[in-house]
Amino acid sequence: MPRLKLPFHGYTVKFSPFYEHRLAVGTSQNFGILGNGRVHILDLAATNISEPLSFDTADGVYDVSWSESNDNLLISGTGDGSVKIWDLAAPPSANPLRSLHEHSREVHSLDYNPVRRDSFISAAWDDTVKLWTLDRPASVRTFKEHAYCVYSAAWNPRHADVFASASGDCTVRVWDVREPASTIIIPGHEFEILTCDWNKYNDCVIATGSVDKSIRVWDVRSYRVPICVMNGHGYAVRKVRFSPHHGSFIASCSYDMSVCCWDYQLEDALVSRYEHHTEFAVGLDMSVLVEGLLASTGWDQLVYVWQHGSDPMAGPPPMMG
Amino acid sequence: MGLFDLVTGGAACAVPGSSSSNPLGALANSLLGSSSKTQERLNELPGTAVTAPSTSLYPGGDNQLSTLPGFENEEQELRRPDAQASEFLRGFRGADHGGFSDAWNEIQRPQVGPRDPALRGAPLPLPYAEFDRVYENGFQSQPQPMLDGPPGMVLSNFLHSFMRSSSTGVPFGPAMLPALGLSERDKLCIRDRSSIMARHFFADKSEEFINAQVNTLLHSLDIDSDFRAKGPIPGRYPELEEYWNESQGAIQPVVHNPANGWINEFSQQKSLHNDSEAWVHMFEQQHGANGWASEFQQEQSQMTSMNQINSANMVAMEQTRMLAHTLSQNNNPKFQNSKFLQFVSKMSRGELIVDDNQIKPAGAFSSVDWAEEYQQQHKGAPTSWANEFTQNELSHGTNGWAKEFSAERELHGSVDDQWVNEFSKLNVNDWAEEFGHQVGKGVAGESSDWLDGYNEYLSEQQVVKQRSNSSRGGYVFSDMNPYVGHPEPLKEGHELFRKGLLSEAVLALEAEVMKNPENAEGWRLLGITHAENDDDQQAIASMMRAHEVDPTNLEVLLALGVSHTNELEQAEALKYLYGWLQHHPKYGTLAPPEQSDSLFFADVAGLFNEAARLSPDDADVHIVLGVLYNLSREFDSAIKSFQNALKLKPRDYSLWNKLGATQANSVQSADALLAYQQALDLKPNYVRAWANMGISFANQGLYEDSIRYYVRALAMNPKADNAWQYLRISLSCASRNDMLEACDSRNLDVLQREFPL
Fold it and tell me: Do A94 and B43 touch (CB under 8 A)?
């Protein structure tokens, strides 16, 4: 399965919702601690990955998200607090189309609204989540309730106005943008919560990943106790993603350098573990268009794309010499 | 364009008379960079010209895109801070360099001058003052150090003084303010990001450890950790705040330091050498805390002021040890190999420094360089402490004393006598004596020599820096090389290589290139040996050195092209393969030199096809073509090219391996195995071919077989890190988790017994 070496350290990878062969990867120099960043647009072929396009940024790129309405639009969240909008069809001099400076701290997560398709949210280390639409130069609204960095925000797959946010204040909050305040507060873990995602087939189910190494699945209608707790990662869980194709299937990556796949409805929830990364595994995505296709990136500067069940390293490249 | 170009030093950021590696260049970067923000045109967003199915629920939304009410206002708002800053820039451009040297002295004076003697409650000793003067003159006569000197050092010194002076209200050129702003941002980034991230990485560790980790990093980078914009998580970690206050706040005499034993002994030794102490202090003050000098200074300050001051240094030092200790305790090889952890560790040891927006090796002040330089200056010296010191550094590897220290502590608990013994083996006593001796001499009359030497050294460092920038990952020499001192290491290495004793050959060839670093043939052969031994990083590093010495060597160019192809680095690979064509006596005319800046695969492949048409009987052209087609993943063409070459050169085992690798990439594993077997028939100790066979078996799901081949490869070269990684994967795929531990501990005996071939 193809892999690609990047010049900087991988932070995020996202499949295009329009083209099955296309990926965007966000990277940062010096592990995102200091330096530049880059957004890579990658195209998959049978055995290799090519890079038709890339955009440079003055600070590390922590997350990217594809537009759900335009196949050429991509947004990126940067360490300097900016959200940038890129147009793949525009000449380099015209990019970024926009650079939105409102967050005072690192923008750590972006999610494009999959239902309304005109808006997106950004979560940042300034403890806020902001709602944006493409047609406005300023954010529509700022959601400020979290007491510490917000690491992740994700739209509900069914309800156009509902999203969840995960924070270092150890809570997940569920928001309805029509309401003045968050509607649900889940004190989900004893440690910081780094990631959350909604079940794509059950709009009441949310998964969270934490520094406590566990992944927990919650029903927002009765969130006193999690539906299940999945242990298996050796370090903080950096990202969880629900499968677009199977209701109970979850992929996760962690600072233990592994990518794990889970079925939270099985007693033995851990389905598979992939140990292909040699540094922290930070970015992870599942293709909407190709069932079972996974992509991951990490601080070993590699992007892997592989089919679930196959070996991401399959064919560690034999060496000429 | 925009920020990236500016940050990386585009032509537009050049400040007259300065390089972009100085704080002012960096400032200009930031200013021009941020003003370019205002040039960022607001483009109309493309409409919903979606080529893929789209069912936008808000078709009206896109119509408003071109009109952006209120954006102009935001523009204004964004611009305000920049406008202020550009005023500063204009002011700066008008300033002359004399102004800078004044500023420089202003910064340096309070540091070098009365501060330290005051701490010791003694008047300025005369030799010290004299030295001070000589040293100051040196700096006055060339204001360059501030602009071009060891950059990270100067920058951090500069800002440090500035911050101190701004806090004490001492007037300072107002022109410097924005420079602070810039570096503040960088430092803020490092401080905040590392503290937030450390909390995630080290979930298992105590709060103390996490703080120690962050503090060590910040301390070594000279970043104030007094406050954190993003404090600890509110309410969750009361004990953390307690610890934080404790470590940052009140100054406590540190009496219970576990290393007191040796410190006492050392300070006894040192009290005989007051002069040297002063000298070291001054050197330290001039050059900030980095490298060994920093460690030395920390120890010094403990000795001179053990009961009064500097708990901050003590805390940092203790934390450094804690960090080293904990890192060395984690047995997971994956973590031991983690570049990130090495990076943090290097930063905390001051081996990496922050310069502008980049992180660079602190080469200029690393212990080895300095020691070597010092030794060169004093060639006549009877006891070459520097040599011994260097030897020690080398033989203890990069982690050096910290590792050893923690290892010792693990073994002996708090029995510090053991450690003292160990430490004295490092010739500290000799060293201190020698050092005092040298300094005594220097102060008596040779200080100008020293100064000259130092200046010379500074300019050398510039060259070294430039050179090292051009070659990535430097070559790492083996410890304890028995071939050092061998009369003819090149010949010996060649012989060993021919016999297939690759790991031995590596040692002999390393001895050769240590002796003759300008011997391209030595480096080339070393590179080939590493490649056959399945160590591509070292192979590339050697070949880069060979390439530096002899940029036109065809074999070197081809080898670099192949290695970069292996590493999937297309642009680099193309560059070297094109270089091969350019420098080839026969085909050079085909390659227009002006093209070498922007190479496109199709063009280069076209040229080589042309060359192949000119002389179809030249195996080398077919080989390069095969490599090129690997690069473009046109494996069928690549296989044909290699087969053509093999008709001409049937006994070239590396060619058989290339064919096999290509066939494997093209999912023809059975054919690949045959080709590898051919290579191994010709060269039985070809580690790379053994490893490649393992890969092919693994690709066919024959994990047990793959394990046997990996183990065979590793038995021949236990340093083949990739093969260890692949072996681990095959073990878990074959459900041989019982052998994972043997793999992780690299226990070849067990593995070979379990998986004989």
Answer: yes
pLDDT at residue B197 in the model: 81
- Over residues B123-140, the pLDDT tens digits come to 333 344 444 444 444 333
pLDDT of residue A164: 97
* Chain B contact for A11 (CB, 8 A cutoff): no
Interface predicted TM-score (ipTM) = 0.89
Gyration radius of chain B over CA positions: 30
- For residue B571, what pLDDT band results from cuts at 50, 70 and 90? confident
- Domains recognised in chain A with CATH numbers: 3-307 (2.130.10.10)
User: What confidence tier does A317 reach under pLDDT thresholds 50, 70, 90?
Assistant: low
Query: Measuring CA to CA, which residue among B248, B247, B350, B345 is closest to residue B289?
Result: B350
Domain end, chosen from B443, B470, B497, is at B470
Asked if A31's CB is within 8 angstroms of B52's CB, the reply is no
Calculate how close chain A gets to B346, using CA atoms only, in Å: 13
User: Does residue B207 share a domain with residue B149?
Assistant: no
Encoded tokens for A276: 């292909």
Residues B132 and B193 placed together within one structural domain of the fold: no
- Asked which of B439, B470, B501 is the last residue of a domain, the reply is B470
The rounded mean pLDDT for chain A is 92
The two tokens of residue B19 are: 């390089």
Is the model's pLDDT at A18 over the cut of 50?
A: yes
How many beta-carbon pairs under 8 angstroms link A with B? 246
Which letter, b or e, does each residue of B658-675 get, where b requires 16 or more Cβ atoms within 10 Å of its Cβ? bbbbbbbbbebbebbbeb
**Same domain? B453 vs B361:** yes
Residue type, position A179, single letter: E
Q: Which residues on A lie below 8 Å from B345 (Cβ)?
A: none
Enumerate the β-bridge partners of residue A298.
A281
CB spacing of A278 vs B334 below 8 angstroms: yes
Residue B58's region, left for phi above 0, alpha for psi from -120 to 50, else beta, is beta
Chain B residues near residue A315 by CB distance under 8 angstroms: 664-665, 695, 699
Q: Count CB atoms within 10 A of the CB of residue B735.
A: 8
Tell me the C-alpha distance between B591 and A53, whole Å.
Answer: 27
Please give the helix or strand (H or E) that residue B403 lies within, else none.
helix B400-412
Nearest to A280, CA basis, from A240, A235, A242: A235
Domain membership of residue B48 (yes or no) is no
Query: Which strands form A237-242's sheet, in the order they lie side by side?
Result: A237-242, A249-254, A259-263, A270-274
Averaged pLDDT of chain B: 62
For residues B93-131, b (16+ Cβ closer than 10 Å) or e, as one string?
A: eeeeeeebbebbeebbeebbbeebbeeeeeeebebbeeb
Looking at the domain assignment, is residue B748 inside a domain? no
Looking at the structure of chain B, the number of domains it has is 2
pLDDT for B334 equals 65
The fraction of chain B above a pLDDT of 70, given in percent, is 40
Question: What pLDDT, on the 0 to 100 scale, is given for residue B150?
Answer: 36
> b/e per residue, B334-350, with b = 16+ CB within 10 A?
bbeebebbbbbbbbbbb
Q: How far is A205 from chain B (nearest CA, A)?
A: 25
- Asked if B158 and B188 sit in the same domain, the reply is no
Rounded CA-CA distance B243/B248 in Å is 8
CB B200 to CB A236 under 8 A?
yes
| A35: closest chain B residue by CA | B357
* Nearest-CB residue to B45 (from A58, A97, A194): A97
Residue with token string 């992939």: A274
Kindly determine whether residue A138 and residue B74, on different chains, have CB atoms separated by under 8 Å: yes
Specify if B291 maps to a domain: yes
- Assess if residue B282 is contained within a domain: yes
Give the model's pLDDT for residue B721.
Answer: 82
The yes-or-no verdict on residue B482 having pLDDT over 80 is yes
By residue range, what is the domain housing residue B175? Answer: 3-39+76-179
